[in-house]
Amino acid sequence: MSQSDSLPDRVRLILEEGINLYRLHTNAHGRLESTKGSYEKEWVKWEKQLREVLIGDAEHLNSMQVPFESAVKQVLEQLQIIINGEYTPPSTEKRKLGLIVFAAVNLPVTEISSLLDKLVENNPKVKSFLEDKDMEPNLKKAHVTLAHKRSHGVTAVASYGHLLHQNVPVELTALLFTDEMAALEAEVGSVDGEKVIPKNEWPHITIWTGEKIAAKEANRLPQLLLEGKATRIEINPPIIISGTIEFY
To answer: Which fold has domain 100-247?
Structure first.
């Protein structure tokens, strides 16, 4: 099959998601019907997403050299083999797509560190807050999450596939923090004229979290700010740095 005939990323992802869900279900319930197990809601959600993906990519799938009807028949045959417990995956098989959890803009550590140094130098409040914080663990994996499989669904993550490895500017506009966490507010720019829109309501870079505080908790900072429980330091003028869109 030629490169142009390969399955779109989001089709591969949704199929991998189904296989992973099947494994979870069978590990917990054996051959019990999916509608009767503890993963019932997940199956319903997956089946809905599968239909949406297949309908959305029907034209591409129908244009493949292997007729779509034939491909479906082969998939059904393979599923029957799996159900019968007769399937053994090749040892060399790589399930990269199945391991993808989120899409994000990966950012250079040195530039983030340089920005924070300037903030510390120019703002006593920032200096007082950051001077005793160990930010290295977060800065080493600095990124702006675009979509997360668990929060936004596999198709949302896959929707950034055509932008993979592309450079994109990120504008940093403010630092928000509490006693438990800190993050840089971010505005993601465009790739070749296409605006990159994060699925996260508040795009940001988590730069520090307290002990036993998950990085995802930084999503709460805007709400905590409204409640008067967080501080916001504006970055004026905003700083623009460049990162690459990646899957993780």
So the answer is: 2',3'-cyclic nucleotide 3'-phosphodiesterase fold (3.90.1740)
